[in-house]
Amino acid sequence: MTNLPGALAGARIVGERFVHSRRQQNPEGRMPLVDHLRELRNRVVKMALALAAGMTAGLIFFGQAWHLIERPLCSATIRGHSGCRTLGVNQLVLNGPLDAFYLRVKVALIVGVILSSPIWLYQVWAFVAPGLYAREKRWGYTFLGAALPLFGLGVTACYLSLGRSMRYLLGLTPGGVQNLIQVDAYLSFVIAMLLAFGLAFEVPLLIVMLNLAGVLTHERFAKWRRVLIFGVFLIAGAANPSPDPVTMLILGGACAVLVEAAELLVWSHDRRRARLHPDPDAGLAVDELSPLPSAGRGRG
């Protein structure tokens, strides 16, 4: 009877030799265009299946999802009314016979995109990653690992401040004028606010990534700190679909705190880089020659 451990060891050696020979033949791991298109098709199919599964869950739990969406409006006290029950003040309305169906599809799509995000993000990364160098992959892992929590933090901060925005905006309605809040307009407003907050919270990550790439140093950051903080509030005001100043201050203040935290990381990284790779010109006066061998150049 054949010795099983020996057979397994032999198969492993043959497999390693096969992989090694393939790497020698194609060291850069290049693929023909047809193989790229085939892989892209497989990734897109997996993303579509994950989205369909998420949308199915959104249709099943539509009541719970819609309750979360309408809660900021229903929990806000607007001109003495709350609970989304007063027509002309804070009640949501539908205009057409198909609007209720479209609403369920839109909510299911939102839930599907959120639930399937780990899968389609991984599929996108798995398609792009083979063409990156090791250092670029490391940056990519860092970016993805920090981008998702920051985006979630921004969405959470937005959701907690939406009630204040509703109270402020609808409270501006003059007397004798009724608010007929269309469901589609309200849903679009909520999604725009969530995206604005989520993307604004990615600004500190962008600063850190620029520092890792060697584009932005702490010295340059410190020189332009006031301009950067002002730019953060400017972006917060432009990205915020609501003219509510309180919401803009919440968004801008949170982003400013994150920018200061990013500055700490930039300062720490620059110190570490200076310690590992000291600058030979550091500490030299303007008229002092560099110790680098430059003799022979510039002689005419």
Structural class: mainly alpha
Question: Can you summarize the main beta sheet?
Answer: 2 strands, parallel
Sheet-strand content, in percent, reads under 5%
Helix fraction, binned, reads over 70%
Number of strands: 2
Whole-angstrom Rg: 28 Å
Order of helices and strands: HHHEHHHEHHHHH
Strands of the largest sheet, in order across it?
1-2
Poorly predicted runs:
294-300
What is the CA-CA span between the terminal residues?
Answer: 84 Å
Please, how many helices? 11
Mean pLDDT: 77
Q: Given the C-alpha coordinates, what overall shape results?
A: flat
What does this 3D model show about the protein?
It is a single chain. The chain is mostly helical and 300 residues long. The chain is built from 11 helices and 2 strands; from the N terminus they run H-H-H-E-H-H-H-E-H-H-H-H-H. It has helices at residues 4-25, 33-60, 62-75, 99-115, 117-128, 134-170, 183-200, 203-212, 218-223, 225-239, 245-276, and strands at 92-93, 181-182. Helix 2 (33-60) packs across helix 4 and helix 10 (225-239) packs antiparallel against helix 11 (245-276). Residues 294-300 have low confidence and may be disordered.
